[in-house]
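Workshop exercise sheet. Pairs work together: one partner reads the sequence aloud, the other fills in the structure field after running the prediction. Swap roles for the next sheet.
Pair: D.N. / O.F.
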Amino acid sequence: MRILATDLIARRVAVIAATGGNNSGLVAKELTSTIPIVFTTGGDPVKAGLVGSLSRPEANVTGVSWFNLDLAAKHIELVRELVPGTQLAAVMVNPNNLESAALYEQPVREAVRAVGMRLLILNAGTPAEIDGAFEKLVQEKASVVIVVADPFYTARARQLAILAARHNLPLVTANREITMAGGLISYGNDVLDAYRRAGLYAG
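Structure field:
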């Protein structure tokens, strides 16, 4: 990622669209203070360090956030409504996107603790690790799997939906694309619309 951003800066591009999570925006911000940067993020861009303020983005950085990483409590609420009696919920996070994983993991732990449930965190950053994560949550007898909003998981929507169906597990996520592929329910903002807005900003 750093190599790609360095190359773009050397080419003196007019704008950098840093999409696909916080990392690309943070790297671009670190490397240039003059080229405009348009980021996309599913979390709070202030907490992520992309901007210092929502009302006054500083310097050369702006973008679009859909705050899907702030929905942990709502996802646990949905789990309790859809799968009554759930004692153990599994949450799948991408270890290759540590910022997003951390932003979701802390509030979901708090939400689970508040309702007396237990939590199983599953790290999966490759297709093979997704397979392994489902094997683990079946072994641990989790009642439901929550898939954290992440570009990698959106790209693997079909794999996630097939595995959930194979193991007869409800799959909850913030991404509509995963639900359209066969997941049980999604609760979150429209990511495609956010990317369209980012494209308008870049334009």
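Discussion prompt: The radius of gyration is 18 Å. What would you look at next?
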